[in-house]
């Protein structure tokens, strides 16, 4: 066999391999059966709130964390996992991946919730925390 013939055969095999991988290499079942998140929002006092909603929390004891609640839809979405983050860079506010917010000082923070599937939906909620006001009349 000549070297040119071997090179042509290798080239043909490479072209066929590229065509086979591009045509059969994807998993079409994944794309057909995968359902992306379409709806994401926080729930405050049992109500759906829009992104940017502000929550005011008065506390007696700041060591009690605030638990976020949320909705991810539709119910048959393949990946309903979300990630939380905060815009607080001082380290005085932390948010866990289970939506538990811990405040170390009285301040405001914005919590972001983002889907982890390819829909990449992000919503936010602003939380302001302050000591409970003990005003009013004292009981007799």
What is this structure, in a nutshell?
By secondary structure, this protein is of the alpha+beta class. It has helices spanning 3-24, 28-33; strands spanning 39-44, 47-49, 53-59, 66-67, 69-73, 82-86, 93-95, 100-103, 108-115, 122-131.
Description:
With 140 residues, the chain is an alpha+beta fold. It folds into 2 domains: 1-33; 35-131, Immunoglobulin-like (Sandwich), CATH 2.60.40. 20% of the residues lie in helices and 38% in strands. It is built from 2 helices and 10 strands; from the N terminus they run H-H-E-E-E-E-E-E-E-E-E-E. The protein has helices at residues 3-24, 28-33, and strands spanning 39-44, 47-49, 53-59, 66-67, 69-73, 82-86, 93-95, 100-103, 108-115, 122-131. Strands 3-10-9-6 form a 4-stranded mixed beta sheet, with no helix packed on it. The chain has a 3-stranded antiparallel beta sheet with strand order 2-1-5, with no helix packed on it. The chain starts with a helix and ends in a 9-residue tail after the last strand. Mean pLDDT is 85; it is low at 135-140.
């Amino acid at each position: 066999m000549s070297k040119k013939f071997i090179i042509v055969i290798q080239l043909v095999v490479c072209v066929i391999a590229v065509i086979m991988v591009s045509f059969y290499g994807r998993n079409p079942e994944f794309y057909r059966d995968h359902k992306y998140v379409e709806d994401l929002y926080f729930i405050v006092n049992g109500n759906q709130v829009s992104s940017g909603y502000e929550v005011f929390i008065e506390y007696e004891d700041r060591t009690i964390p605030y638990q976020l609640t949320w909705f991810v839809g539709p119910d048959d979405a393949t990946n309903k996992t979300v990630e939380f983050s905060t815009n607080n860079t001082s380290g005085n506010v932390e948010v866990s991946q289970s939506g538990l917010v811990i405040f170390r000082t009285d301040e405001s923070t914005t919590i972001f919730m983002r889907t982890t599937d390819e829909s990449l939906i992000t919503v936010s909620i602003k939380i302001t925390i302050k000591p409970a006001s003990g005003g009013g009349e004292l009981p007799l």
